[in-house]
Amino acid sequence: MARLLSIFVLLVFVLHVASESTGEVVEQINGEEFTEELLFRPLPDRKVLSHFHFESKVPPTNSYGHHHRLFPKAIYQLVHKYRIREMELSFTQGRWNYESWGGFDPVSSSNAKPPGVELWAVFDVSADQVDASWKNLTHTLSGLFCASINFLESSTTYSAPDWSFRPLSSNLRYGSLPREAVCTENLTPWLKLLPCRDKSGLSSLMDRPSIYRGFYHSQRLHLTSGEFDPMASDHGIVLEQTLTVVLQPDALETRGRKLQPNWSMSSLFGKTVDGKCALAKSSNVYVQLEGSLVHNMKDEGDEGLESNLNFEFSISPDRIMKEVNSFHREHSSILYGFSIKDHHSKPFDLGFKWNLPVTWSCVKAPLRVSRFLMGSGNERGAIALSLQSTEWSQSLPKVDHNEEKCRLKVDVFQVVPWYIKVYYHTAKVYVDGVPQSFGDAIEKLSVSPSEDKVSPGVMEMSLKLPCDLKSASLTLEFDKGFLHIDEYPPDANQGFDIPSAIISYPDFQTCMQYKQDNASIKSPMVSKMQEKRKILSYTEVLLVPLTTPDFSMPYNVITITCTVFALYFGSLMNALRRRVGEEERLLKEKDKKSGKLPSLFSKLSAKLRGKPWDPPSSSSSSKFISSKTAALVNILILNCLGVNVMNLIEKAASILGKKLERTKFVKMLFGTDFEN
Ligand SMILES: *[C@@H]1O[C@H](CO)[C@@H](O)[C@H](O)[C@H]1NC(C)=O
Ligand SMILES: *[C@@H]1O[C@H](CO)[C@@H](O)[C@H](O)[C@H]1NC(C)=O
Ligand SMILES: *[C@@H]1O[C@H](CO)[C@@H](O)[C@H](O)[C@H]1NC(C)=O
């Protein structure tokens, strides 16, 4: 009985402990946070921007511990192993159209990315260890995201911008791979970091064919950590994952009327949302209408925010937020919010219909930037950066009140691979076609010239241009270098990429302040929009043709030698294997069989020539002799030829052998490095 009682007491104790620990777990879940959000924005060129925003938060390790329920372990370990303070990785396909999709709003300035892969990271290690950490980080990310990010390991591909990329950025490394192809194998590991993967919640919309059919898609991962910063002791790790897709809704032809296409979640992605991700704290969908669109619609005569004659939603919005303190008073945008609850009865499928035609234009960055190559030939050329004012910059507020002349500051950050040897002293700045003196146009310039096979050339330049400019341009001359044979990429004749330059405007900041009608509903995406951030635009990637060796030469040599070998051995074997006695017997049999017709024919021909006809028996013996000699001659000729061919092959091999080692030859043939 006493034993039974003690067992009972033990059981009660265990249950008590268990219930206490589950209480702790609930608290811990409250510490970690995951939210999912999706923003739609109709674009003026009849496309729709979809921007997914997922945020995972974990409190600092010293108050919370190492065990996580929601936060991805891979990212936590990455942050701790390499002591990362901030990191951003993006995979992009397509080019952001700054003209029609905007260049002045928070979404475009943080999600318009250069094509391919871009990675930058700030480390919390001593300055001499940053490079080692960067190298190890690129390898880890490469494995994590199934991409060749490890190519950024080489010191020729990354750089350490001083001030133009981010102000006061020590321990920052920046690298980009313009030619990296982005596809589903990069998206899948990215989705794996979400607690619900793409099984439920907003991420279940991510239908691969719809996403990759889009005009632009950029998948981004941004990480900030306060783990190593004693000042930010309550800031743990925040992981922000965004996917930005520009899609064209399938629109029926509308005769004459310039009606924007109607769209819905199911028409854009071919899928609907069944309910929120059970682990998400909140799950919201937003539709943003830009300020100029709202402004143009108001002209149609409708004033209310709730009901508008111009368009209608298939679901009525849960909340409406209006932008306050907009850069342009009359242009304040509106955000319609929809909460996804557990819509188990009915799938959530937000639709948007236009009833009246409306046209508008996006808010653009102060300057329209493009970069191109000048010059011809394989020796030298020039890079030109052209800046043109947009209509937006006409209405810019005066930037510098102290100076009598208004100045527009433009920062340029450009990394150029070492084989493009840029002569920085040839930099010329033209404003409206007039050359400017160096001191007039350039406020600050720092340059680190490239070093062959060691480091790329980095240029950071701060231009000050008059506000009323129409166009400005910057040119830099360069020489093209020579690469070693194994430094050529597989398709060298395509040309070599110069990564995008980054243009930013330090005097302007983008930020959208929304008046939230209910402060208890906090949206990380809306708070992100409210953060002040720099306006960035990326230029095109340049493709420079370099002198390339004739990679088909070894192939040609091999095919020619093989053909000659085949011919030689074929005829030699034929000559050697020919059985002369057998042939003779066959010939005789033929003669016997051939009967009267051929003998008649030869008689006739002899008569015609006026010669006496001799019987065929003698001719067969002469034929036999001649066939024997012919075979001999054949063998002799082939032998001579063979010797010549051998000489030729030896020569070719020696030429090749001198130039290449065996491994390099293989590399050159197959274009890849088998060691990696
Ligand atoms: C990077 O990786 C190498 C090889 O695994 C290791 O020896 C080195 O300590 C690592 N460095 C850093 C800074 O993590
Ligand atoms: C969008 O829907 C509205 C209302 O149903 C309709 O009048 C209009 O023609 C549709 N527009 C297009 C482009 O299909
Ligand atoms: C704000 O939202 C909360 C939760 O949805 C709700 O309980 C509260 O009544 C709302 N407050 C206002 C002012 O709408």
List the SSEs and their pairings.
Layout: H1 2-31, E1 33-42, E2 48-58, H2 61-64, H3 73-82, E3 84-93, H4 98-101, H5 106-111, E4 116-123, H6 130-145, E5 158-159, E6 172-177, H7 184-192, H8 208-212, E7 216-225, E8 237-247, E9 263-264, H9 265-269, E10 282-289, H10 291-298, E11 311-313, E12 319-324, E13 334-339, E14 351-354, E15 367-374, E16 380-389, H11 391-394, E17 407-416, E18 420-431, E19 434-436, H12 438-441, E20 442-448, E21 457-466, E22 471-480, E23 496-498, E24 502-510, E25 513-515, H13 524-530, E26 533-538, E27 542-544, H14 553-577, H15 580-594, H16 596-609, H17 616-659, H18 662-670
Parallel strand pairs: 1-10
Antiparallel strand pairs: 1-2, 2-8, 3-4, 3-7, 4-6, 5-6, 7-8, 9-14, 10-13, 11-14, 12-13, 12-25, 15-16, 16-22, 17-21, 17-24, 18-19, 18-22, 20-21, 23-27, 24-26
One 2-acetamido-2-deoxy-beta-D-glucopyranose (NAG) is lined by residues 251-252, 254, 259, 261-262, 353-355.
Organism: Lactuca virosa
GO cellular component, one term: GPI-anchor transamidase complex
Protein name: GPI transamidase component PIG-T
Mind explaining what this structure looks like?
α14 runs antiparallel to α17 and α15 (580-594) crosses α17 (616-659). The strands form 5 sheets. The protein has a 12-stranded mixed β-sheet with strand order 5-6-4-3-7-8-2-1-10-13-12-25, with helices on both faces. Strands 15-16-22-18-19 form a 5-stranded antiparallel β-sheet. It has a 5-stranded antiparallel β-sheet with strand order 20-21-17-24-26. It starts with a helix and ends in a 6-residue tail after the last helix. Helix content is 32%, strand content 28%. β20 (442-448) and β21 form a beta hairpin. Mean pLDDT is 83; it is low at 17-29 and 671-676. The radius of gyration is 37 Å and the shape is elongated. The chain has 676 residues and is of the alpha+beta class. One 2-acetamido-2-deoxy-beta-D-glucopyranose is lined by residues 251-252, 254, 259, 261-262, 353-355.
